[in-house]
Design brief:
Immunoglobulin-like; 10-stranded mixed sheet; flat
């Protein structure tokens, strides 16, 4: 390229010199033209493949199957700023784009061929056939392949697409995999009810997230894996640096059918939206606290894809309507749907760079939405962009994009003309308020949120005339609802106190109104999703342990806001084990060996299992007092170690009855008594006598129990 570009510049330079001889002003204009031509020769001229394109930092790659292209869109502008042709073998195929920073991989879902897109050149580089049906995931600078049917996982180089390190095998069929914030691959293994981690060519310790055979869905939420078991109606948050958090979801999640709940592959924040399309239940789970809110929405019987969350709004792809249903979780109401195609079509919807993207891969239309809910329509078929078919045209001073010609009357418009499509019908029913004399509409969007000993019920008010207030129905004996009546002006929230954490409750809201005859009437909402009056516990506080003559005593304080829970206590170190405790302290009669221990305690109730509290302690058994025995008219030696062959720290002579401080006992080297074989043994007692500390053969100390064995927990093992 350099030689051909230099040739162009030399020709232009000669022309400029000739112009200078004729006219100074003309020469100055020509100098500017030289600059234009030099730049054009570099960017648009021969050797254009070497041009470096700079695309928007906040943007995304979208497929345009109908044109056999991949296009890059500037998010804030909503404009295409680059595109490239797919390899001929991919055109017309179903294609998925996996994008992580500068790693852009194009996966042909029909053939299993994976190609790398070089964003700096707007060209397809390396291509490899990895096999039909292979998952390809990339994030945090790492890339992996997952063969769901064969159960094989493999790290690959995101540039060369070649294997990196060893592969690993898992029991098929595997679920949709994801990469956490540390670059570790996580794969749901339904057959075992586990999620397995794969890193550096090795499988890590799997995490139990459900029952074997359950329907598992994985979401990477703010870098942490979250696995929903639709069969058991649970969500497990796996934190690589701590214990899992397990949340019991409403039992309506079990009605999601064979495929399970619809869950996003990843979320920017800690809140994960889940859609049970069969019931219209929308559950938002806060994976940081383990709390959820559940709303039963009046969803039409359409084909949906996994909901996405941006800010407080949930965007539900409705492929039957070709639109995004928008639910504002903070206000508990629908907002105006966002049309994408306004016709039945597949929609690829994801969140990237703090923006939500919705793309029709088969057509020209796409939409980008920012955190404020501002949307921009995208025409992917626009040509005048880097990498487009007109990229080789050399621009001249004064040139620019001509305004589009107006269509003649009666001329059919292009199917991708930038014309706003009709807005699909909003999912609220009915669309228009009732007329005079007609009953008000029932309250809508009854939403439930569990609390500690409470249940909060929010709803959208009715539309119509004569409304006098709202009352909560299905409040059982022993419960109280506050307020007892909500005025027609709101706020539209009831709080129910009481109930049992082991049970779920459903509520309805009734609107009360006066009919034409002045009589009080009611219109009832649909039932809410099930809810419990308790929340997933947090981590216990104040965990500590100490050694006693009864064993290790472990105590803690209940998590904030939790009045009743059971606790699982585990310990490891010099001894290991586990125990279930109903209170906030326990004494471990089986732990009486000196050494370092790690204690872990986790709170659980019917709402779920919280994160663990953990502490490490070096425990040394308490001292006790004993007397010297069996040492009349003889010598008893205090050894430096539990071995009669070790050095002697002191000699006790004919001192039966002397007081000893006993520290612990331990099995050591065998010893033989010179005259009495009944005194042969291998047990030693660590003592202090007259300022001398060391080990004596155990029959010399009058400790309780048989001297030939360990006595704990009154006398700890050294």
């Amino acid at each position: 390229m350099a030689g051909q570009t230099g040739k162009v510049i030399r020709i232009v330079r000669v022309a400029v010199l000739n112009l200078f001889r004729r006219d100074r002003l003309t020469g100055q204009v020509a100098v500017g033209l030289v600059g234009v031509l030099v730049i054009a020769a570099v960017v648009y001229g021969v050797g254009v493949a070497s041009a470096q394109y700079r695309l928007a930092d906040v943007g995304a790659w979208l497929t345009a199957k109908g044109k056999g292209m991949a296009v890059h869109v500037n998010g804030p502008a909503g404009k295409v700023d680059g595109k490239t042709d797919l390899v001929p073998q991919m055109r017309g195929h179903n294609v998925k784009i996996v994008q992580d920073g500068s790693t852009i991989l194009i996966v042909d879902l029909d053939t299993g061929v994976v190609s790398r897109l070089d964003p700096s050149q707007l060209s397809i580089g390396q291509s490899r056939s990895l096999g039909k049906g292979i998952q390809v995931v990339a994030d945090s600078g790492k890339a992996y392949t997952v063969d769901s049917v064969k159960g094989a996982v493999q790290q690959i180089d995101p540039v060369s697409l070649t294997p990196v390190g060893a592969s690993a095998a898992l029991p098929p069929v595997l679920g949709q995999a994801g990469i956490d914030g540390q670059g570790t691959l996580w794969v749901p293994v339904s057959r075992k009810g586990e999620v397995s981690a794969f890193k550096d060519g090795r499988l890590q310790q799997p995490v139990r997230v459900g029952e074997p055979g359950g329907s598992l869905a994985l979401t990477i939420a703010a870098g942490d894996p979250v696995v929903v078991d639709s069969t058991a109606a649970t969500a497990t948050v796996v934190r690589p640096s701590g214990s899992p958090l397990k949340v019991s979801l409403p039992t309506s999640v079990r009605q999601s059918g064979r495929g399970g709940v619809l869950a996003p592959a990843d979320t920017d924040g800690k809140v994960v939206p889940l859609l049970v399309s069969g019931t219209g239940s929308l559950v938002t789970v806060d994976t940081g606290t383990g709390r959820y809110t559940s709303t039963r929405l009046p969803m039409p019987k359409h084909r949906y894809r996994a909901p996405q969350m941006l800010g407080a709004k949930v965007y539900i792809p409705d492929e039957t309507a070709g639109a995004l249903i928008v639910y504002n979780s903070a206000a508990n109401r629908f907002e105006k749907p966002i049309p994408v195609t306004n016709r039945p079509s597949r929609l690829d919807v994801f969140v990237k760079d703090g923006m939500l993207w919705a793309n029709d891969p088969s057509g020209p239309r796409a939409v980008v939405v920012d955190r404020q809910g501002v949307q921009k329509d995208i025409n992917k078929y626009k040509d005048r962009v880097a990498g487009g078919p007109k990229r080789r045209t050399i621009p001249l001073p004064g040139d620019g994009d001509a305004p589009p010609a107006r269509a003649r009357p009666g001329t059919p418009q292009s199917p991708w003309s930038p014309q706003r499509p009709e807005t699909p019908q909003r999912p609220e029913t009915p669309v228009t308020p009732p007329g005079p004399g007609e009953p008000p509409t029932p309250p809508a969007n009854v939403s439930v949120t569990p609390g500690s000993g409470t249940m909060k019920i929010d709803f959208q008010p009715s539309q119509g005339e004569g409304i006098t207030g709202y009352v909560l129905k299905d409040v059982q004996s022993g419960m109280t609802a506050t307020p007892s009546v909500i005025a027609g002006t709101g706020p539209y929230t009831f709080t129910v106190n009481g109930g049992d954490c082991a049970s779920e409750y459903q509520f309805r809201v009734a609107v009360q109104y006066k009919d034409a005859q002045g009589r009080t009437q009611e219109q009832m909402s649909a039932a809410s999703d099930p809810v419990r009056p308790c929340v997933t516990p947090g981590a216990p506080t104040g965990l500590g342990a100490k050694a006693t003559k009864s064993g290790a005593q472990v105590s803690w304080s209940a998590p904030p806001g939790v009045s009743s829970a059971t606790y699982k206590l585990t310990w490891s170190g010099a001894a290991s084990g586990s125990k279930t405790v109903t209170g906030t302290s326990t004494t471990l009669g089986g732990v009486w060996k000196n050494g370092s221990y790690t204690f872990t305690v986790t709170a659980a109730n019917d709402a779920g299992t919280g994160t663990a509290a953990r502490t490490s302690s070096a425990l040394t058994g308490p001292e006790s007092t004993a007397k010297v025995q069996m040492n009349g008219t003889s010598n008893g030696y205090i050894y430096s170690s539990p071995n009669t062959g070790s050095s002697k720290n002191a000699t006790m002579r004919d001192n039966n009855g002397d007081s000893l401080t006993v520290h612990c006992k331990v099995a050591g080297a065998a010893y033989t008594h010179s005259s009495d074989p009944n005194l042969n043994g291998s047990m030693y007692t660590k003592i202090t006598w007259k300022g001398n500390t060391g080990y004596v053969v155990s029959y010399l100390a009058s400790t309780p129990g048989p001297w030939k064995s360990l006595e704990g927990p009154a006398i700890w093992e050294c």
